[in-house]
Specification:
Blueprint (H helix, E strand, L loop, with lengths): L3 H6 L1 H10 L6 H34 L5 H35 L20 E6 L18 H4 E2 H7 L6 E2 L2 H19 L3 E3 L4 E2 L1 H6 L18 E2 L4 H6 L4 E4 L5 E10 L18 E11 L4 H18 L4 E5 L11 E9 L4 E10 L3 H6 L1 E4 L6 E3 L1 E9 H11 L7 E2 L5 H4 L3 E2 L3
Parallel strand pairs: 4-8, 7-13
Antiparallel strand pairs: 1-10, 2-3, 5-6, 8-9, 9-15, 10-11, 11-12, 12-15, 13-14, 16-17
Helix pairs in contact: 3-4
This protein binds one RNA strand of 88 nucleotides through helix 3 and helix 4.
RNA sequence: GGAGAGGUGGCAGAGUGGUCUAAUGCGCACGCUUGGAAAGCGUGUGUAGGGAAACCUACCGAGGGUUCGAAUCCCUCCCUCUCCGCCA
């Protein structure tokens, strides 16, 4: 959510942001509702002030006196007016709030113009995308794959996209999780194991609600299975005022993530490329506004270092205005090369939300300078998502003899040097 | 799951229909005092919205209701605690 004051004072900034993100939002309509809302607030507050002063006067009068009774009669009209106007105001307020939620975050000045994924800028990376060797195949075609990742039985027991991970498959996942969490701890992120269901208020604060409820699994108790640990992590400090000296705060969390992925189809969803339940380690930062871009670069480098240590070729994309998302001010994607499919797979997305989420979630800090609460900036990024990293390891490290070489840094966690698919 | 008791400012805690603009205490900040400190004394100390400002308005777990008027009465929900039951 944007600052209503920014909208009032600089509507052109907001228009420019919408244009850069190639989104459709009616700034004038929001401004019109804002004007109506402010007029109604003033009206209701005047009526309430009348009521209050009458109340004070009545307190001093004897209860049954003619003056008192006259005053009661007089105030009945005001009371009715307050009620009527308050209903109107509440109605307007709902529309006003909903209207504000249609306005996207402003993209940072360094975000490149562009509309499509092709216009994202490749700004870095590591390693070289290897050409397909004769024996290279997509990971789901590796002989024995189904012994480690059983999609068939997962479909029987739960549904499509809920694979069982078995034996070496399960252990490799666990090795990756341990590796990621340990590395992140070394980089200063405190590990958190959060609830994996959240309530509607939390899902709203991070932007899953309203509008995107179709992408989450919902329980009878109106709880949502988390689509990412970002949701419970960010909400940890919802409605709190932090001490400035505690910033920046770094946290990381492993959770399973649940996504309905309604509407996905085709090659994108084969094998481990896209599943409904997957494991991910998420990095999260709450920082002072003056440092958030510095912190974004550091966050991205932390995620990159994981891929480097796994010796996986990857590239870094700076997302263009049209492909960066509604809430982000700046976003990088890390894409890992999968030699069997000969394509890039997104394994991390590192974003600065500036105060956009913090305003919704009301996460603030008390500024030493002003003595007043100010909104923090929030940032998050995957560090990292397991299935696609797994896919890349399987495809890139597949040997001619059908075994898969385990990255050296995982061997201590995994306990053997090769996957044998046995 | 059953029964009961609760939820008030940073914390403790009073307030059961009307200047509540929420007592009092603690904490915190500043000042006086002091060689310095403690004690003592004094002053101040929440968040949000509207307004150029003066100032006004809202907020006593959340949401509704009754009333001229609600922290206070009624309803629904959430959470905490105690006891019982069940259980990894």
């Amino acid at each position: 959510m944007l600052d209503p004051k920014l909208l009032r004072e600089s509507p052109d900034l907001v228009r420019a942001a919408i244009a850069k993100k190639h989104l459709d939002a009616d700034v004038d309509a929001v401004l019109a509702i804002d004007t109506t809302w402010r007029a109604q607030v003033t009206e209701v507050e005047h009526l309430r002030a009348t009521q209050k002063s009458a109340n004070t006067a009545m307190a001093a009068l004897p209860k049954g006196s003619p003056e008192f009774i006259a005053k009661v009669q007089e105030m009945k009209a005001v009371s009715a007016a307050v009620k009527a106007k308050e209903v109107e105001l509440k109605e307007t307020e709902l529309h006003w709030h909903a209207a504000l939620l249609t306005l996207p975050n402003l993209p940072h000045a360094t975000v490149p113009a562009g509309k499509t994924p092709e216009e994202n800028q490749v700004i870095g990376g590591h390693g070289t995308p290897v050409e397909a060797k004769p024996h290279a195949v997509a990971h789901w075609e590796i002989p024995g794959f189904e012994h480690l990742f059983d999609f068939g039985r997962g479909a029987k027991v739960t549904g499509a996209g809920f694979p069982f991970m078995i034996g070496e498959g399960a252990r490799l996942v666990r090795a990756l999780l341990n590796f990621f969490l340990n590395e992140n701890a070394k980089a200063g992120y405190v590990e958190v194991s959060p609830p994996i269901f959240v309530n509607a208020a939390s899902a709203t604060a991070t932007g899953q609600l309203p509008d995107k409820e179709g992408q989450m699994y919902e329980t009878l108790d109106k709880l949502y299975a988390v689509p990412t640990a970002e949701v419970p992590l960010t909400n940890f400090y919802r409605d709190e005022i932090l001490d400035e000296s505690t910033l920046p705060i770094y946290r990381c969390a492993y959770t399973p993530c649940f996504r309905r992925e309604a509407g996905s189809y085709g090659k994108d969803v084969r094998g481990l490329n896209r599943v409904h339940q997957f494991d991910k380690v998420e990095l999260l930062k709450w920082v002072h506004p003056s440092t958030s871009y510095e912190e974004l670069d550091k966050l991205r480098l932390d995620a990159e270092s994981l891929l480097q240590k796994l010796e996986l070729p990857y590239r870094v994309l700076l997302m263009c205005g049209g492909d960066m998302g509604f809430a982000q001010a700046k976003k990088y994607d890390l894409e890992v090369w999968a030699a069997g499919q000969q394509r890039w797979l997104e394994v991390s997305s590192c974003s600065n939300f500036e105060a956009f989420q913090a305003r919704r979630a009301q996460i603030r800090f008390r500024s030493q300078a002003s003595g007043k609460p100010e909104l923090v900036h929030t940032l998050n990024g995957s560090g990292l998502a397991i299935p696609r990293v797994l896919a890349a390891i399987l495809e890139n490290n597949l040997q001619a003899d059908g075994r898969v070489k385990v990255p050296a840094v995982l061997v201590p966690h995994f306990g053997q040097e090769y996957l044998s698919f046995g």
